[in-house]
Amino acid sequence: PFVNMTHAITRKWANRPPLNPKQSISVRDVIDAYTINGARMLNLQKDAGSLEVGKSADFILLDRDIVSLADNGHPEGIADTKVLATWFRGQKVYAAPEPHTPAPRSARRRMGNSRAGPGG
Q: The pTM is what?
């Protein structure tokens, strides 16, 4: 959704002039479209769509602050946003894999030398 959020804010597509820039909406309106307004369209606004007492605690943790990006004139950075974790009904249901850190070169050599060849 973050690419589409960026398009809604900037009205820009690669290698094209902005499409109807007067129809641009704010980052807060985009977030509402994906949260509370989406819940309203499904008639679920009493149970979901915002974080309030008595509602399902559904939310995501992002790798960047998309509001700050837009507010500071960099809404195109929203397109590259990654979800780090997802909670549904207050329970963590998704966690992004930890970034892989390569082993130091000396450890890789040791690991490579410890492999058994054919026949053990």
A: 0.77
Cβ within 8 Å of residue 120, ≥6 positions away = none
Separation between Cα atoms, residue 106 and residue 112, nearest integer Å: 10
- How far apart are the two ends of the chain, measured CA to CA in Å? 50
| CB-CB neighbours of 37 under 10 Å | 14
Q: By C-alpha distance, which of 82, 71, 59 is closest to 9?
A: 71
Quote the CA–CA distance of 82 and 84 in Å, as a whole number.
Answer: 6
Q: Encoding tokens for residue 31?
A: 């977030």
Tokens (6 digits) for 75: 């809404």
Kindly report, residue by residue over 50-71, the tens digit of the pLDDT.
Answer: 999 999 999 999 999 999 999 9
pLDDT tens per residue, range 77-89: 999 999 999 999 9
Question: Does 10 score more than 90 pLDDT?
Answer: yes
- Cross-strand bridge partners of residue 91: 88
